[in-house]
Amino acid sequence: MAGSASTSGRSMPVRRLIQRLTGNLFSLMITLLGLLAFTFTLSHLSPVDPVLQLVGDHATASTYAQVRHQLGLDHSLPVQFWHYLQQLAQGHLGVSQSTGQPVVDDLLRTFPATFELATCALILGASCGIGLALVSVWHPKSWIDHIARVISLLGYSVPVFWIGLLGLLVFYAGLHWSAGPGQLDDLYVYTLEPKTGLVIIDSWLSGDRGMFINALQHLWLPVVILGLLSMASITRLLRAALLEENSKEYVTLARAKGASRWRIAWHHLLPNTRGTLITVVMLSYVSLLEGAVLTESVFAWPGLGRYLTNALFASDIPAILGATLVIGSCFIIINALTDALVWLTDPRTR
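The line above is the sequence of Peptide/nickel transport system permease protein; the predicted structure tokens follow.
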């Protein structure tokens, strides 16, 4: 009886976690469906005629009607959306009107570049943001604390495209510290064999040291700019949580017993703010994956953001919906993972 009760007690948290994740995933899937419906409707309100983009202004009426029928644009908007959902259920996202390639192939080609850029920016932003928040808490109202506040303010206030253009002007055109737009120079673009889709890893695996250094020279500036935005949000929110935790009595007691700052931070502050830390870092990652559009446009980075920008200008509905689906799916997966990690690592949430 005791063993049965113990087993039942251990299985309860797992069952509750599964139920929580199922409920969250269901609500997020409904949100994604609404996002697709809104994007689909908004795309059809564009004044650009996708049929004329394909056939040209001098096409005959019969040619125009035939292409319109092939694209399914002769049906009502709800019917078109239903046909799109049917294709989506079969794994087909349509053909891009801009590139002439299946949208799935375009997404598989462009998403790794965005993933590489966002992941490197998150590593930089989280490392600097957590360290800056800790130092700011150790020295409240000091010059370090003021610097943390200024960085947070600048990261939230200054437009990313302006920082990108300024960075190119200073570090590329002026100091020549950056290799400029793109992922690689033209010398290496056509010689790189894509294996993982991540230029840093592929250039390293190629064994060409010059190609690897060139990839780093192209990567560091957009990573620093996006990392600044990530660091601003992480520093601001984590600093507030650490200041609140640092004012509690158990921290004063640990300090009175002679515990060092690193011991207090590692064994008391960070464990008791890990829920906030996980949430802030993961949401920052979502914002980097979603918000790299302007950065990729400024740096001609061949990622998902630039692909979506070009699709919006061309009124390429299949490409727009495919990119929206990927971004929404990333949001769903990362939110569900964040909720699970917080629930598992912080007993107070249970």
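Note on the example: The chain has a mean pLDDT of 82. The chain is about 80% helix and 0% strand.
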